[in-house]
Design brief:
The structure is a homodimer. By secondary structure, chain A is of the alpha+beta class. The first copy, chain A, contains eight helices and 14 strands. Chain A is globular and about 65 Å long. β2 of chain A pairs antiparallel with β1 of chain B, so a sheet runs across the interface.
């Protein structure tokens, strides 16, 4: 975020104005946009240092950093928008190390002609998501590209957080005998986006599950259980994420289709749209892998939290040189659940 | 960066292939792209943790974070490319707090159809710039947008670094009587980009000054002088950056046109293109503001470094309630040098 520019009293016409190239110039118009939209919504002492960087104190220990670009289309959808998603998505990637997220940076790439009213709404949503999560948007950047060289707004957020001493959570720690837990129903986010994109109406509205999971994770960590892996099944869905973990840990997995929570409305929409819920992105769910002895305690901790009420043990880790994820189907058969091949749902996050 | 996928032995056709939507799916094609381009070039232990985040140890003290989106056009230009620029730009913003940059994250937004050969070249350039600077690309992300919804590649980098105890460098510390130093010639980057865009030929090729300034800054800090402000005059150029600092510190500035280093070829190109070198972006220069007593020592330290050979004292800070930057012109007159208004050079970084 460039310096604050308090003397530009001339207000932006947020209701009717549009982004133009001068908003990316680094000059007066940039300063006005930053002050009257981003700083107004994000206001905090770090941002108000007014430098091109933000300075903060650290303790000795361990930190994590994670980054995600957000290019979701449409920008506004049931259950959220690109602003709240850009906060939740990165915050969750930080939290999956068992970390407490502290600071976010936000870099905006705006397309010429984008309505300032939409940008203002997105900034307000980011500010609320960050404030609700107790994280600070410490620094930022704004660029503008010509009409037809972008698509409204892209937001890249980077998060940093601190990890407690006891935590040793990593995708390479799944071991044969471990249990696989999911924190709730699969596919809500992806189906909500698809339905919104295709303008489909269902009896029950399907909302994105976009949510910040760090407090739920803090409760899992506080149990003292040795959590082996945590990962959020975003792009590529549960199936792809389990394959990633299987490969990283050099193990196989066996999951039970009947145990995987999927909302009836999501299942029905998937049938209509020809989608497989196992491959659909989630934005407020996690996969937790732990020793069998810890599984019940972690499951019960998940279920006591509003974001984990429908948590379920869906399978277990097995020794397998092929690193296959195999699923026992509802009909009693067994099939290999492979990585997502090709592209099922472009620009889902 | 999603997990490493070592088992995908099928090689990408980097020479002839193009980015398609499946490379952003989070599935097999994404993993292949990440492994065979990004991980191959950036390889380091943090990235190879293979999680959606990177974990590192920290000391007690102070850190800084900074982020920048890079949307420069053209992607390749004399003196660099979007990859080296994305490393230098963010690293410099971190260093302007007097910090030692340690880690970068990199988020790519790719347009469908972008040649893999160009992406590979850009990744190689980023890797070299990071390695030369002694910083690690610790984590990343890749998204793909449909043809016509992006422009080849946008790269958002976020950097973190540590700040020594003695440092207290901030844009609000300029005080009347302080000297204003620039580390070298103004306008090289912006003019190189414009010339490249317009396909202009000059007798002397003008190259971007894109460079990592953190080692030069470390030498300034090591003098023990009390550096008040450091800032790199990127978008908006020297004129806008001085106005930012004047406003942030609530002071005025007086600069001397004859003292501002501008290469003759840059000056000639500016006259041809109707540009003012004071408003043109630099990517390897800094402005240093310090007490008058420290100015000669800092100037001499700058001049001993290859990136500061043409450093010069260009003016001083004055008390001024209007926070004006005034310039004594070559012809003896005086004029107010205002913020950049409008957009002179879109997509310069």
């Amino acid at each position: 975020m460039n310096s604050l520019v308090q003397r530009f009293s001339q207000p932006l016409d947020i209701a009717h104005g549009k982004v133009d190239l001068s908003h990316g110039s680094g000059g007066r118009a940039s300063a006005q946009l930053i002050e009257q939209i981003f700083v107004r919504h994000f206001r905090n002492p770090l941002l108000e240092q007014g430098n091109d960087n933000a300075l903060f104190a650290t303790q000795a220990g361990r930190m994590v950093i994670s980054t995600d670009g957000h290019v979701i289309s449409p920008l506004f959808f049931p259950g959220g928008d690109i602003g709240s998603l850009a906060v939740h998505g990165t915050l969750n990637d930080v939290a999956m190390a068992g970390a407490t997220p502290l600071y976010l940076s936000a870099a905006f790439i705006l397309e010429e002609g984008f309505p300032l009213a939409d940008l203002d709404r997105i900034a307000a949503s980011m500010a609320k998501a960050a404030s609700d999560a107790g994280v600070v948007i410490a620094t930022g950047d704004t660029k503008v590209v010509e009409r037809g060289k972008g698509d409204g707004v892209f937001i890249t957020t980077t998060g940093i957080g601190v990890v407690g001493e006891a935590c040793n959570i990593s995708g390479n720690r799944a071991a044969p005998g471990d249990k696989i837990i999911v924190s709730g129903s699969m596919g809500d986010h992806g189906v909500a986006i698809m339905a919104s994109r295709e303008n489909l109406q269902f009896d029950t509205e399907i909302s994105s599950d976009s949510a910040a999971l760090h407090r739920l994770i803090a409760e899992l960590v506080a149990t003292g259980c040795d959590i082996h892996c945590l990962r959020d099944p975003t792009r590529g869905g549960l199936a792809t994420t389990l394959n990633e973990l299987a490969q990283q840990s050099a193990v196989g997995m066996r999951i039970n289709e009947a145990a995987i929570p999927v909302k009836p409305a999501v299942l029905a929409a998937c049938e209509l749209l020809g989608l497989d819920p196992l491959y659909i992105a989630n934005e407020g769910k996690l996969i937790c892998i732990c020793a069998s002895d810890d599984a019940e305690q972690l499951l019960s901790t998940l279920r006591q939290h509003p974001l984990g009420r429908e948590a379920a043990i869906i399978g277990e880790v097995v020794a397998d040189d092929h690193q296959f994820v195999q699923m026992q189907t509802r009909f009693g058969g067994s099939r290999v659940v492979d990585w997502l091949a090709g592209e099922q749902l472009p620009r889902i996050c």
